[in-house]
Write a structure and sequence with these properties.
The complex is a heterodimer of chains A (306) and B (822). Chain A has 306 residues and is α/β, with parallel strands linked by helices. Chain A has 2 domains: 239 residues, Aldolase class I (TIM Barrel); 57 residues, Alpha-Beta Plaits. Chain A is 33% helix and 23% strand. Chain A is built from 12 helices and 13 strands. In chain A, the strands form 3 sheets. In chain A, strands 7-1-2-8-9-10-11-12-13 form a 9-stranded mixed sheet. In chain A, strands 3-6 form a two-stranded antiparallel sheet. In chain A, helix 4 packs across helix 6, helix 6 packs parallel to helix 7 and helix 7 runs parallel beside helix 9. Chain A is globular, with a radius of gyration of 20 Å. Chain A starts with a helix and ends with a strand. The relative contact order of chain A is 0.15. The mean pLDDT of chain A is 92. Helices cover 51% and strands 10% of the residues of chain B. In chain B, helix 18 links the parallel strand 8 and strand 9. Classes of the chains: A alpha/beta (306), B alpha/beta (822). Chains A and B meet through strand 1 and helix 5 of A and helix 27, helix 30 and helix 31 of B.
Chain lengths: 306, 822
């Protein structure tokens, strides 16, 4: 195996995932994403490399991390608390060891396929009854396609179901390769208008839409998911356009609405990044329900997840 | 794995659908509201009649004295039928009432009076304020004065002092034992076969024949004679008790102007004069029989709960016949079951202070549903469904329901059980593994049919085929305390008293194995002593305590001619599990040992001296805090990490291994029970700062398989994997609590996933799992505004209680417990 096939950068392995694919699953969150969705709830998923985070509510300003840092990357500011020079940080972890309140953490670690598989394999018995298995999410897992293929191949050999949770923004051949080892795809469709798509996510949507057809044509079971953000993509034109598009993906194509939530705000703070979604609000339940009905009226089966 | 030989009932889907559509009717809603609005009260009549009888029977054999006292109680305590009740049987004249069982412990109520304001008394949980009328208080005082020095608890105490000096008091002080004995012994799962088939009259005639036969042929043991006579006395007493309800119903019918209520009361007259003397003819009569039998049991021994067995099995033929023949509608059956559950719901418990501190409880009545038929088929039927549905509608904290899972349980029953968990908010029903329980009993010599036909006693431990159970329970061996004592060479650091043997200064131990061996030595010493003291206490209590009414309804006693207390339920006692040791705290003990092993022996980051100094100072100072962090960062049980889980397994094996060579007075082997309750709070008070990073006196991990609060960070599947790896299969039960926020159920598939999760855990060999479905915010609000959350129930380690009634510390801990982020 090449290094890319045998290792990946992840930021979490979550057991008993019940919202990302059928049955009970283990979700492997891969780090790095080509999109910059302003509502993203996983701030730590964006950068491809590992990075230091601080839970400021836990920090007691003891400054032990300042003393511990061999690079002099940490300083203490009376007004703003602990400050990092992220350029100097080598992620050696000395500050984490020194912190008495567990306020510091590193997001992201290099992990082998073997170790990832072993972690996934521990819960194998829980996958059996409800058709569960492993889900790779992110970030954008297709950025680390070689890792995903190796992991999925191993899982399949062990009889563990595989699910890909993707933005669809990837090279079509890469996608095809991963699909060969995939049992289920969770496919994000964020906006049908390519300009809106670009302004909210940083990329245009043509590749995403054409890749959706590849998934549909592959015969792998697919669930289109829409992060429903009030004022962004919940207007009638976009909903109708989405419905029409999803209908072209085949009779089995269905939609799940994921209403926007603000649970991710704190993660941005740990990375000293401004939250780009300040202006967004959670769509009211009635609005979600009316969107759901529009999809159903257009002949697309639609549920509300989250 | 137990082979299944037969498929179960043929279940009518139409009836299941009809049940799902049943709403709470006006009668049941009204009774529930009355329950919520009413204040529990303590009554004294039981004690008065008991005492009168006791004075009359001085010098007679204990079996007959008890029987006469119980008979007098049944013939005289007030009977009460409340407005609109369809099912009747009230422990006291109050809607929510209780008695103090002063004939078991003369100081039962005096302790409580000392702690209460005039006119008040705490019931069940310590902060349930009940009412105490002045005349009742005077009478209770009188009963206490009369029974002073005569009761079992006091005699046991005197005997213990005579043999071991203050050892047992010191042990109780150090929380090494829950109390001398916290509840009256002699109870069991009700056998309804005889009373349903022959009625009490039939039982009386058969017992009379045995007596006549014995008169003619002579008898090997006068105890048998006394036992059979005692059965006649209490059976007549129970018949009279039911007839008195009939008479009361007749009085009320005569005064009743509403014709439909009058008709109900007239039917009640008919029912109460017919059963339990005669076999029930209808579903209504069968359920009313059960109600009187369970009430009789509580009036006999004042036990904390009624262990009723499998109502969806023994009542099913009556249900089925009445439905098939059009005698009742599903709606009427629901009314009957709802009324029956209400009778349990409004029965209060006024436990002694010692008991409350240890297990903090109101009543624990246990009804078993689902499971296996005797020939190995699935036992779920329409009545299982109806019980679950009514539990969900009524949302009483009691009785609690145990749902027996087995491989091949139908999905509809699983989903109804999960749905009931969701609507009650917490823990009804709990899930138990019928397959592993069956194997457990078969391995210990119980015939497979009886093993399958088990039901649950106490909060969650199984017992085969409707048998009586008498256990001088070795109440709560506190393993973290024994580790603490081992680390202090025989001394309990929290009390400063020496209650163990000297096993050496741990600073001198060169290897971890030496430390573990010292712990085993300490446990061995303590366990031997516990067992010795129990055998002594058993001899003592036989002179003061019998349970003829319980024995009448226990498989085996009538044939064998002995009370449950004498082992009458067993024809061949050897190899039959009957006495148990309750050992607790192996999770914190295991986590502490893992920490010591890694920090002191494997990685040598600390010396034993440094560690002990930090523990003895309760992790004081900067260095103490640093050491505490090191301790907390060692892998903990509950995260699916091999080393931590295997350590718990190793600690958990110590007592079962030691018990292999021990025998009960009945010649049978001991088993261990690992149940829940709130012991962890009590037990933690006696344990100093521990190497798992816990501060001195803080609560231990709850239930018996639950990880230390906040230590499990890998989600519920990891907890389950740890629980399986820790391998508690040699325990009669091991309890695991799991909390899910209600919000999760908004996703329509979540209930299915919880069902899958439960089944997987069971299939992997899990023994018990119970769900708290709630969110932390709800709990915080409930703590602040108890008046708005009267209805909120929560599961605490194996039993349920209304959240707002729990002690604030327990409330805090429930809030703090890791909410699994999903």
């Amino acid at each position: 195996m090449t290094p890319a096939e045998s290792t990946g950068v992840i930021f979490n392995i979550q057991k008993f995932s019940v919202h990302d694919g059928p049955g009970i699953r283990t979700t492997v969150f891969l780090k790095g994403c080509p999109l910059k969705c302003q509502w993203c709830s996983n701030a730590e998923s964006m950068n491809p490399g590992a990075e230091l985070g601080i839970l400021r509510s836990l920090c007691n300003s003891c400054e032990k991390c300042v003393d511990a840092c061999p690079e002099g990357a940490i300083t203490f500011d009376t007004g703003r608390g602990i400050q990092f020079d992220r350029g100097k940080c080598t992620l050696c972890g000395e500050c984490i060891n020194a912190c008495p309140t567990d306020a510091l953490t590193i997001y992201g670690r290099l992990i082998t396929v073997e170790d990832t598989f072993n972690e996934v394999y521990r819960d194998r018995s829980f996958y059996e009854s409800g058709g569960g298995g492993v889900t790779v999410s992110g970030g954008e897992p297709l950025r680390q396609a070689a890792f995903v293929v190796s992991l999925f191949r191993k899982c399949r050999e062990a009889g563990i179901g595989t699910c890909l949770d993707t933005s669809g923004y990837a090279d079509p051949d890469t996608l095809r390769e991963v699909l060969e080892f995939t049992d289920y795809v969770l496919y994000d469709i964020k906006h049908m208008d390519t300009y809106c798509h670009q302004s909210f996510t940083g990329v245009v949507n043509d590749l995403i839409l054409s890749n959706a057809r590849i998934v549909a044509a592959s015969g792998v079971q697919m669930l289109c998911r829409i992060p429903l953000v009030a004022g962004v993509n919940d207007n009638i034109e976009n909903i109708v356009a989405t419905a029409r598009f999803v209908k072209t993906l085949g009779d089995r194509a269905a939609i799940e609405l994921l209403p926007y939530h603000r649970l991710g705000v704190a993660k941005y703070q740990t990375l000293d990044r401004p939250y780009p979604g300040e202006a967004f609000t959670t769509p009211p339940t009635e609005q979600v329900e009316s969107v759901r009905r529009i999809f159903e009226e257009h002949g697309v089966s639609c549920s509300v997840g989250g | 794995m137990v082979t299944k030989t037969k498929s179960g009932y043929e279940v009518d889907q139409k009836i299941l659908d009809e049940i799902d559509n049943i709403k709470l009717n006006k009668r049941l809603a009204g009774l529930k509201q009355r329950y919520l609005d009413d204040v529990p009260k303590l009554a004294s009549e039981r004690g008065t009649y008991y005492m009168e009888s006791w004075k009359e029977t001085e010098g007679q054999p204990i079996q007959l004295r008890i029987a006469q006292a119980v008979k007098k109680v049944l013939e005289n305590v007030p009977v009460a039928i409340f407005d609109n009740e369809l099912m009747v049987g009230s422990i006291t004249k109050f809607f929510r009432g209780s008695y103090a069982i002063i004939n078991y412990d003369s100081s039962w109520v005096l302790d409580l009076l000392e702690q209460s304001k005039k006119g008040e008394i705490t019931m069940g949980g310590l902060n349930v304020i009940g009412k105490l009328d002045e005349d009742v208080e005077r009478e209770l005082q009188e009963h206490s004065d009369y029974f002073k020095g005569k009761t079992n608890r006091e005699i046991e105490e005197q005997v213990s002092h005579a043999i071991w000096g203050t050892w047992q008091d010191d042990l109780v002080d150090a929380k090494g034992q829950a109390a001398y004995h916290y509840a009256p012994p002699g109870y069991g799962i009700t056998n309804y076969d005889d009373v349903f088939a022959k009625g009490l009259r039939g039982i009386i005639e058969e017992v009379q024949e045995k007596l006549d036969h014995a008169e003619q042929t002579g008898i090997d043991d006068p105890e048998k004679m006394w036992f059979w006579q005692s059965v006649l006395l209490v059976s007549e007493g129970l018949i009279t008790f039911a007839r008195r309800y009939g008479e009361r119903a007749r009085e009320l019918a005569e005064q009743e102007s509403n014709p439909s209520r009058r008709a109900e009361l007239e039917e009640m007259v008919e029912v109460c004069f017919h059963i339990p003397e005669n076999p029930p003819r209808t579903f209504h009569e069968a359920v009313q029989t059960a109600s009187f039998v369970e009430l009789g049991k509580v009036l006999e021994n004042g036990r904390i709960g009624d262990y009723c067995g499998r109502y969806d099995q023994c009542l099913y033929p009556y249900f089925k016949r009445d439905i098939d023949e059009g005698r009742i509608t599903i709606e009427k059956a629901a009314d009957i079951i709802g009324g029956f559950i209400t009778l349990f719901g409004r029965r209060e418990q006024c436990a002694q202070v010692v008991m409350r501190e240890a297990i903090q409880t109101n009543k624990i009545s246990n009804i078993t549903l689902g499971g296996l038929t005797r020939d190995g088929g699935d036992a779920c039927n329409e009545l299982t469904h109806l019980f679950l549905h009514m539990v969900g509608l009524l949302k009483y904290a009691e009785p609690h329901f145990s749902f027996t899972w087995h491989e091949g349980i139908p999905r509809w029953a699983m989903m109804k059980a999960i749905e009931t968990n969701k609507v009650t908010g917490a823990g009804h029903p709990q899930f138990l593994n019928g397959d592993s329980v069956t194997s457990f009993f078969v391995k210990r010599g119980v015939p497979v049919e009886d093993a399958r036909d088990h039901a649950y006693l106490g909060c969650s431990y199984a017992h085969p085929k409707n048998q009586g159970y008498h256990c001088k329970a070795i109440s709560y061996v506190n393993l973290p305390l024994l580790l603490d004592i081992t680390l202090h060479n025989g001394m309990a650091p929290m009390t400063g008293k020496k209650i163990g043997i000297e096993t050496g200064d741990p600073r001198d131990f060169k290897t971890f194995e030496e430390l573990f061996a010292a712990l085993e030595k300490q446990v061995t010493y303590q366990l031997k002593r516990y067992i010795h003291r129990n055998h002594v206490a058993h001899k003592t209590e036989l002179n003061t305590w019998r349970v003829p009414l319980h024995s009448t309804f226990s498989t085996g006693c009538l044939e064998n001619g002995y009370d449950i207390m004498m082992g009458g339920q067993f024809s061949e006692p050897a190899d039959h599990p009957v006495w148990d040791v309750i050992d607790r705290g192996y999770i914190p003990a295991g986590d502490s040992l893992t920490a010591i092993k890694e920090l002191v022996y494997d990685e040598k980051k600390l010396t034993m001296d440094e560690l002990l100094e930090a523990l003895d100072s309760d992790f004081a100072g900067e260095r103490g805090e640093e050491i505490r962090r090191m301790c907390l960062n060692i892998p903990k049980y509950g995260n699916d990490i091999d080393e931590a889980d295997y350590m718990v397994r190793d600690v958990g094996k110590i007592i079962p291994r030691l018990l292999e060579s021990e025998r009960t007075p009945f010649g049978s082997k001991y088993t261990v029970i690992r149940q829940g309750l709130t012991w962890h709070y009590f037990g933690g008070k006696g344990v100093g700062a521990s190497p798992d990073g816990r501060k001195a006196g803080k609560p231990l991990a709850d239930a018996s398989l639950s990880p230390t609060q906040g230590a499990d960070t890998n989600g519920p599947t990891a907890v389950c994997n740890s629980a399986i790896r820790a391998d508690f299969t040699d325990a009669r039960v091991a309890v695991l609590n799991q909390k899910f926020p209600l919000a999760l159920f908004k996703n329509s598939q979540f209930a299915e996933k919880v069902a899958d999760f439960t089944e997987t855990f069971m299939r992997n060999g899990g023994s018990h799992i119970q769900y708290n479905i709630l969110d932390a915010d709800t709990l915080r609000k409930a703590k602040e505004h108890p008046e708005q959350y009267k209805d909120l129930i929560v599961r605490v380690a194996g039993y349920s209680a209304y959240f707002v009634l729990l002690a604030p510390e327990v409330q805090d801990e429930i809030i703090a417990r890791t909410e699994q982020t999903l």
